[in-house]
Amino acid sequence: MRRGEGPKVELRFLISTKAAGVIIGKGGENIKKIREEYSVKVTIPDSNGPERVLVLDGDLGSIIEIFRENLEKMQNNRDEGVDLRLLVHYSQAGCVIGRGGYKIKELREQSGLHTLKVYQMLCPSSTDRVIQLVGDVGKVLNCLQSIAELLEGAPPKGSRQNYDARNVDEFISLEYGGWGLGNQGSGLNMIRGRSNVANTNYSQNNILTTGIFGGGASGAAGRNGGQTASVNQALAGGLPHASAAAMLAATGGQTTGGPNTGPTRDAAATAAAMVAAGFMRGLPNRMAMSLLTPTTSTQVSVSNKMIGAIMGRSGCRINQVRHESNADIKISKLEPGVEDRIITITGTPEQIQNAQFLLQMCVKRYGDQI
Fold it and tell me: Which residue intervals define the domain K Homology in the entry (predicted)?
C-alpha cells in the first residue's frame, strides 16, 4: 500500500519515550517534516514516564510509510527486529484473535513475525489493550496493515477511555504490554514475554512480619525501596549487623512514591530489631539479605520447539540455571494443541534477572541445534 492509499484511520501506538524523541526530532524538526510531507495528523501527548502514546490520523498507506521511514530508528538493537505496539479498544481485540484463536494463528503464519501477541490486561485506567508485533520492518508493517483492515470492520463497542501514558504503572507494565521496568525490548530473545506477574511478598520470610514483637500479622508487603539497598551496602561493606540494622531502621519504608508507613515499614522495623537483637547473627550475609528482600514471581513463554535448548539432556541445563541463579524455576507440562510452554521464575529481583539472562544464553547457544 502506497502513500495516499487505503482507508482513513486513526491508529494509536504505545511507544517508548526514547522512540518519541526520534519521532519528534531535535527541536521538533522531524515531526514537523512528517506533518508537511504526509496528510496525516500526528500527536504525541506529553508524559514524564517511560512511555508515550503516538496518534496517527490519516490514510493507512501514509501511516505505513511514516513507520517505514522511522521505525528502525525508534528501536534499540534487537535480534528479533523492531517492536511495534498498537493500542486497540478491548472490544476490537476479538476480531484480531478470532474464534478459538484461529485468526491470530493465521496472522502469525502469514506474517512470519517473531512475536504477535494480544495482551489480556487493559492498560491502566483505560479500555485499551496492546497488540505487540515484533519482527523485520517489512513483515511488521504488512501485518499492521492486515490488522488495521480488520479493525475497520469491527468498530469499538461500549464505553471508551483511551490510554493516557501519564497513568503508567511500571510495576505491571509487563502485564499490559507497556514500556516500564524490564520491558524495554531487552528481554529473552526467542523467549516471548508473557504477562509477568509481580507478586511481591515475604514468602518464607514470614518471620519478619508475623509480629514477633507483638505487632500482629502484617498484610502483603509493599514495594521494597531504599532500605534493602542500604542494608545491602552495609553488609557488603562488612559493617556489623547492628550497624546494618540501624541503617535499616533509618531508611525503612522510604519507598518510591510512598509515605514512611505501611507493611514495608513494619517489616523493615521488625527486621532491624531482629538483626540488632542477634536473631540473624551468624548467618552469611547473602542469607541474611534474602530474609530482607521480597520475592517476586515472573512468567515467560517459550515455543515448544525451543524448550529443548533450555532443558538440555536429562534437564542438565535448566538445573544448572537453577543452581547458578538460586531462583526457583518451573516449566509447565506439554499440552496438546498448545504451541508454548510457560516458565515460572520465582525469587528476588536479582535472582530472576540472573535466571532470565542464563535462559537467554541457553537459547542463543543451543537454539540452532534443535
Answer: 7-75, 80-152, 294-364
- Each domain of the chain, given as residue ranges in start order, spans 8-168, 209-292, 296-369
Tens digit of pLDDT for each residue in 187-238? 343 343 433 433 333 333 332 322 323 333 333 333 344 444 444 444 444 4
How far is the CA of 196 from the CAs of 141, 177, 199, 246, in angstroms? 27, 10, 9, 35
Q: Minimal CA–CA distance to 295: which of 266, 256, 326, 324? A: 326
Whether domain 296-369 has CATH 3.30.300.20: the reply is no
pLDDT > 90 in the chain, percent:
40
CATH code for 8-168? 3.30.310.210
Cα separation, 201 vs 206, in Å, equals 9
